[in-house]
Amino acid sequence: MRRLFLVCFLFLILFISTACTVEEKGKTFSATIVQVVDGDTVKIKQDGKLVTIRILNIDTPETYREKQAYGEEAKQFAKKVLLNQKVTIELSAKENPYDRYGRLLAYIWVDEDTLYEEMVLQEGLARVAYLFEPDTKYAKRLYEAEEKARKAKRGVWSVDGYVTEEGFDMSVWLENAS
To answer: Catalytic annotation on 2?
Structure first.
């Protein structure tokens, strides 16, 4: 019985300590981007630890598993705009602002008025994606930025059918590239 009590007590302490590390929903804080993984994923240092951030409401072409057209351009754009820059991180409004991979879900403000998401969308290097409540407060801005790139046939929008509801269709890209 004593052992069961000790185990339960340890689990309670572990639960409380991990609950304290979960960020407050919607909170903002300043951070410096220390690594760019790809166009929609970056890393910051927080309390001496490397924290991976999945940027909200956008999807950029892949650069790892399946290399997709404009993936490297999106990554280079993120490096140019974000790497070693002090930005404002605005956390997801979800109760738990982490995705299933343990990445912190957040918007990234380059300055007081400029969302990184808008910038990458206007360049035609991303699509609006994964737009779910409660993280929809910038939807209008993001769709407008995407529409500018789409109308100008910039980047991922330069080949009809490459951008789909599920992501990016390389077969369409390859068919039109030849």
So the answer is: no
